[in-house]
Amino acid sequence: MPTASATYQPQTHYNSPPQHQQPQQQFRPDLYRQDSHHPYWPPHSDLHSGPELPPIISPSHSEPHQQRLSGDVFLPYIQLFFQHMFPIMPVLDRQVFLDASLYSDSSSMSSDMYCFLCAICATTVVQLDASIPQPSPLHPQKSTDDVFAEECLRERKTYDWIDSCTPLAVMVPFFLFCYYGNHEQSAKAWHYLQECITFSENLNMDDEQSYTKLDPVEAQWRRRLYWLLFITERAYAVQRRKHTRLHASVQLPAVFESEDPQLLTGFVNLANLFSAVDDSFVSAWRGSRRQSLCNEAWLAKTQKQLDAAALAVDSGGGVSETQQMDISVTREWLHVLAWQMGVSNGLIWGKGEGGMRLDYPIEVGRRVVEITRGAKGMALDSHGIGMEQKLSDIAGCLADVLRCTAGDTSSTFLEGKQYLHTLLQTLSSMRGKESRYLKPLMSKLDGVMGYELSNATLPLPAETAATSANMPPVTSAGNDFLMPGGGRYSFADSFGMLRTLSMSGNLGMPYLDAPIQQGPGLQNEWEQRRESGRVYDEYETKAMGHWMGGQRIP
After folding, report:
1. Phi, psi at 40, each rounded to 5°
2. Nearest partner of 3 among 119, 124, 92, 86, judged by Cα
3. What pLDDT does residue 534 have?
4. Which residues make beta-bridge pairs with 25?
5. How far apart (Å, rounded) are the C-alpha atoms in residues 204 and 199?
6. Gap between the Cα atoms of 145 and 538, Å rounded
7. Model confidence over 162-174: pLDDT tens digits?
8. DSSP-based three-state secondary structure for 481
9. Are 398 and 416 in contact (CB under 8 A)?
10. DSSP code, position 84
11. Which residues are CB-contacts of 155 (< 8 A; sequence separation ≥ 6)?
12. Residue ranges per domain, the chain?
């Protein structure tokens, strides 16, 4: 991911670094001062009930003075950011942001700097969540991430942030996006992501020629920032089935001229992976391409491109464990999405090329288990809600395949249950607690794993690798699957059920918005992130009757 340092200090003058050495900056405290006065906010005053979208027109500066947060509250969270999140968001310069003198007087900071620190601290708190101990709360009744986010939005009302078009200003809405994204408030998250992209376009960061006019070091920082936005937009647009605005139109940052070539190697690998998620992929995933354009050749090519883009990770590219988790799990997640497009377009077969087989999600599940097995907790947890979403997507798709092929006693499908069980165990302890996606995911599993949603713990599946050795060989010919009690699903039936789920937006793990509070003492209900207005017809309902346990689909 891009690193941000000079990017956020556009006035700073840099010396061109020698080859393989870290870009040097001259730290100038006056960069963080501003001439205009700020409203102040008395300590321990009531905060807003929740962050709100900023007004289109900046309000006047005549509001009563309010006091900013003390500068020393920021540094502990910035240190946590560098310790755990920097490998996936290397967009800050250590020399500047770990210098304690920066935080000596918050009243002398520019509004952009103050807002940026509030936004990144809010993201750090919510993204790491309960995975590690964090500093003492800033407010007795509010979570610390909300305090930081609200203070960022309050400060934004005191100056014309729209005209404050600097790389540092780009990062304010970016980290607000991260904050809202981790809270599953997708509308606000998308708003702030679009805002930071607009800022980047105003700075011509999507134009390769613009970099030739910059100091070489500043140009490198801006390249990192641009590619961070590119990666983030592609990932979030795919998750939410949105259009994309940024393209792979500028050169990647230089690896060997950076302060940390290993870190930049991981970032470039991730950028290459998302470069494979081109406009045709996004359009096909959104369902806006003609079916004839998403054909067998395109699907096979896409699956191969995803593997080739992250080849350096498989060949021991020397990236950090945190980056390896990001790249490898993301690649498998994209494989599953491409497979789902194949299901929607009738391109999945019982046998044949890997990415177009009916049991392909089982293979993906195996690879993800191998990737995550033995990984340090923080290597997964530092990615925040995004890692949980990708793992739950993969697990949900695997669960659907196992349900639509119920009764198949071949080793492949028995092993698939083991992989699903392992993924559920991983989700049962993410960021220091049970993932919010675990229970909605387990609601898919009745009759698949041998345990119910109400179970407090996850027992081992009834079938184990040991028992599979004693199973009789599969006697079905071709693509037929055995059914419990002697019944069968043909390949056509299994594929038809999967395609029905895919076309209705329910294949895999339905994304969730924030829980809907039903009142004191009542259990939360969940909204799907990708709602489907499609109603199953009578034929589809009848075909899926056995699979749904006799329950009709509304």
Report:
1. -120, 160
2. 92
3. 34
4. 14
5. 9
6. 48
7. 988 899 999 999 9
8. strand
9. yes
10. I
11. 38, 68, 111, 114, 115, 118
12. 6-10+22-260, 276-515+524-543
- What is d(CA 437, CA 332) in angstroms, rounded to the nearest whole number? 18
Model confidence, pTM: 0.75
**Helix, strand or coil, per DSSP, at residue 528:** strand
CA distances from 554 to 141, 259, 379, 533 (A): 42, 57, 41, 11
One-letter amino acid for residue 226 of the chain: Y
How many angstroms separate the CA atoms of 453 and 451, rounded? 7
* Residue 252 confidence (pLDDT): 95
* Nearest-10 crossing angle of helices 216-240, 279-286: 20
- Rounded-to-integer distance, Cα 517 and Cα 526, Å: 9
The answer to whether 528 touches 511, Cβ cutoff 8 Å, is yes
Please check whether residue 475 is in contact with residue 147, taking contact to mean a CB–CB distance below 8 angstroms.
no
C-alpha to C-alpha distance for 51 and 57, rounded to whole angstroms: 17
Residues of the chain falling short of pLDDT 50: 1-65, 292, 451-488, 511-554
Residue 348 CA to residue 495 CA, distance in Å, equals 8
Q: Give which of 227, 205, 317, 339 is closest to 274, Cα–Cα.
A: 227
Which residues have CB under 8 Å from 136's CB, separation 6+? none
Percentage helix, strand, coil for the chain under 3-state DSSP, each rounded to 5:
50, 5, 45
Q: Give pLDDT, residue 541.
A: 41
* Residue listed under structure tokens 């070489």: 216
The phi and psi torsions of 108 (rounded to 5 degrees) equal -95, -5
What is the predicted pLDDT for the residue at 447?
59
**Tokens read off for 409:** 């006693």
Cα–Cα distance for residue pair 181/235, rounded to 1 Å? 12
Q: Which two tokens stand for residue 28?
A: 């100038």
Q: Which residues contact 79 (CB under 8 A, 6 or more apart)?
A: 98
Q: Virtual CA dihedral for 96, 101, 105, 107, nearest 10 degrees?
A: -20
Q: How far are the Cα atoms of 155, 164, 314 from residue 471, in angstroms, in the given order?
A: 66, 68, 34
Cα separations (Å) of 358 from 340, 342, 424?
Answer: 10, 10, 22
CA–CA separation, 298 and 292 (whole Å): 10
Phi, psi of 481 (to 5 degrees): -120, 140
